[in-house]
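Q: Here's a chain of 413 amino acids. Please give me its 3D structure as tokens.
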Amino acid sequence: MSASMPSQGRPWPELRAEMLALKGRDLDWRGGRHAAYVWHAWDDVEEVAREAYALFMTENGLGMRVFPSLQEMESAVVQMVAALAEGGPEVSGHMTSGGTESIFLATKAARDWARATHPAITTPEIVAPFSAHPAVNKAAHLLGMRVLRVPTGEDFRADAAALAAAVSPETVMLYGSAPAYSLGVIDDIGALARLAAERGLWLHVDACVGGILAPFVRRLGYPVPAFGFSHPGVTSLSADVHKSGFAAKGASVVLFRDAAHQEFSRYTFTGWPTGSYSTLTFTGTRPGGAIAAAYAVMNYLGEDGYLRIAGAAMRARDRFIAGLAAIPGVHVWGEPDLWAVAYGVRDADITAVTREMVRRGWAVGPVKEPPGIHLMITPVHEPVIDAYLVDLRASIDAVRGGTATAEGRQAAY
């Protein structure tokens, strides 16, 4: 691999071969060996995303006036996601580069809303459950805010009473997840929304993982609680189209109760030669390909396509949970509502089990508290669930029996 720019350009076939060789060392996500990072349904969906992205690879989402095609597609994606989030015509929003940016913009909007409505607050505070995604802390760090993390309940969901007790005069925002990334449980958004309404606080729902597909899981008959704008206290919500929407990275949507709340996410600057610079996103240039791919995939799949994906993911999840229960000493942490599952192992060092699984070719997601292993299940996992369970049982037996190899003990996640 060349580490410096060549004096003369290299032919594409040579470069392509080199890059494919590099790619060959990456994780076998097509074989379902991944615990996260990649959301893949079927090859035809990936092909639609690739072609749509390529069609608009050069267009820039910063310039909607000159690329009205992007504006129209973004508006359609936002409306589709808003409908899934139980929002009416007043709900407003826009696309971002991913969940972190969506959460950042919701946090920024909450801060600026608080500045306008609660000017006495000096250091705006966010009260969140321990299970909240680190993106909220990242946003608070950049925005001069602070986050107070509150222990979850025994069911690992946000404890509304504990959050209420933690609210202070500096609190401006509450945070809930649908689902929480690590354990896959959905917080009681209804209880959090009532608390937010009673205290006059902004409530953000992090539905980055579940926002697109969870409503279809509910349609299949699973008891998925409502987590969107049907709760009057919900102010903003984030949902990643490149996660459970199965579109190309990076495509997320951040939604607001109405356009007035959305405006607090805007940044405007006029003190330079060109005049007004005003954006609703953190980034300036936005890849048109990500907008186009999201639009194409959501329309290509339609409701029936997402129902098929939801069915495949939940079938795999149910088989996985049943298989875990058949391994002595293994238990699921909490009661996951969707396809994300975390499990623990009694009488075995979970770190050693993790390393043994890595040695057997699985990318395993470790969970620190409670100690466990995490798997984000997608349709690509359905054919390999049994193989995963066989290797998990063997890994646990090796750790319990003291036969874990040195390679396994030294393997890195």
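Q: Can you summarize the key feature?
A: The two ends are 25 Å apart (CA to CA).
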